[in-house]
Write a structure and sequence with these properties.
Elements lengths: L7 H10 L6 H9 L20 E4 L2 E3 L2 H11 L6 E5 L5 H10 L4 E6 L2 H12 L6 E5 L11 E6 L8 H5 L1 E11 L2 E7 L5 E7 L11
Parallel strand pairs: 3-4, 3-6, 4-5, 6-7
Antiparallel strand pairs: 1-2, 7-8, 8-9
Helix pairs in contact: 2-4
């Protein structure tokens, strides 16, 4: 069933009532970072539709239910260093910036140059000092850095081990792989604990070796 709402408050109530939005800090982020600022056309009628919206170049701003579901899995905390791969419109980067707070840091990565600029312009509306969007290179993630949390908003064909290498011990990676979302936690012995959630559709993850 397709749901569309008149404002952000109604959308958030839907996400809470459906059980997908549960944590107080993530709920606050949705309340304070409005989807209307990331769709490119604030006059369109379906801004608060609970479905993906096209933002150009074959990319979308994700369905709010899916975004809430993935952020609940990710469980970023205040002070965390987070990598947001496939930042697109900048909406998830901004939500994460609110969640991790001033002592945290969020780096958004985007391959499409137009969307890098689009995401940066949208992010500026919130004046976050703890977030930035960068042009992605030819490798996945940022080699040589470690993150507490990694969120990927596009689907890989297979699980990219190189992202697990960029995860701190005790950290968590949430990534679509095919029709699944993988919830990956790195344990003390570097072992990966993986939970698979089935039934999702994402634009493909594009990168080159």
């Amino acid at each position: 069933m397709i749901y569309s709402f008149l404002d952000n408050h109604a959308l958030i109530n839907h996400l809470i009532n459906s059980g997908v939005l549960r944590s107080s800090r993530i709920t606050e982020a949705f309340e304070n970072v409005d989807r209307i600022d990331f769709v490119g056309d604030a006059g369109r009628a379906d801004i608060y539709g609970d479905y993906p919206l096209q933002i150009g170049y074959g990319q979308t701003i994700s369905q709010p239910t899916t975004v809430a579901f993935m952020l609940e899995m990710l469980q970023a905390k205040k002070g965390d260093k987070v990598l947001d791969i496939g930042s697109g419109s900048g909406w998830t980067t901004a939500l994460l910036a609110y969640i991790v707070g001033e002592k945290g840091m969020v780096i958004g990565l985007e391959r499409v140059p137009h969307l890098v600029r689009f995401g940066r312009d949208n992010l500026k509306k919130y004046k976050f000092k703890n977030a930035e969007i960068m042009q992605a290179g030819n490798r996945l993630g940022i080699a040589g850095q470690k993150f507490d949390r990694i969120l990927v908003s596009a689907a890989a064909d297979e699980f990219p081990v190189e992202l697990a290498d960029q995860l701190k011990v005790g950290g968590k990676l949430v990534i679509p792989v095919g029709d699944y979302i993988f919830e990956v936690t790195k344990k003390e012995n570097e072992k990966l604990d993986v939970i698979e959630h089935y039934g999702f559709s994402f634009v493909p993850l594009i990168f080159e070796e």
